[in-house]
UniProtKB/TrEMBL annotation, chains A, B:
Transmembrane segments: none annotated. This is Helix-turn-helix transcriptional regulator. Residues 12-110 form the HTH hxlR-type domain. SUPFAM superfamilies: Winged helix' DNA-binding domain. GO terms for molecular function: DNA binding. Keywords: DNA-binding, Transcription, Transcription regulation. The keyword Disulfide bond does not apply.
Amino acid sequence: MATVRRPGSYHCGIDAAMDVIGGKWKVLVLWALDERPYRFGELRRALGGVTEKVLAAQLRELEEDGIVHREVYDEVPPRVEYSLTARGASLNEALAPLGAWGRQNVAVVSPPQVPGP
Amino acid sequence: MATVRRPGSYHCGIDAAMDVIGGKWKVLVLWALDERPYRFGELRRALGGVTEKVLAAQLRELEEDGIVHREVYDEVPPRVEYSLTARGASLNEALAPLGAWGRQNVAVVSPPQVPGP
DNA sequence: CAGAATCCAAGTGGATACTG
DNA sequence: CAGTATCCACTTGGATTCTG
């Protein structure tokens, strides 16, 4: 859902952006990939509790929107790595203030770690 | 969906914030109220195409999350005004970079007007 | 390992009608 | 005017199973 997917159907930049990051796991994916590239299963474990189908779907959408890059290595066993594109990185930067707001205004519970977005 | 509603169920500030602005019309409401207070029907017309039920539900959630303030005037005919709280205003500020990102990276179509969030 | 396919559950949004 | 009350449709996400 986004960028080229629904051209001219937004009323302001925010709901356009919301369409890109609207999926339930997308911001978490963004957050993870902001650190380093991840393999599929690895990413799945990192998010904890996403089914393959859903994660694959969200990654496909993020790829279509030019947010993540999908690199397939022709090996056995198969290996696929996901990473942020430049646009994805810029999206993450734009998301930073919102992350800060959430941390200040909403109860977050994760274990003490790097203060992510 | 938010703040006090799901304490300790987020992994980072962003998905916490996403829970607050997750509704389909919420960011549009935020955007409108950022300009000035609105009455119910007025707001509904401004958004264009929201049903009363849905708008009422979203406003109620935003109110529970401390984003909007609901002021009831005891008059005939009844009058209710919605406005941003301080927290709502700060959320809007945190949303600004995302709005800028959306405008630069996604096709937005609205008529030339004040560059909103 | 990295998914595709299928089927299903739930949440979310919408249409319409009615009320204080 | 500002909602509430129902009922309904669709989208999203999830569980399970299967494959290159």
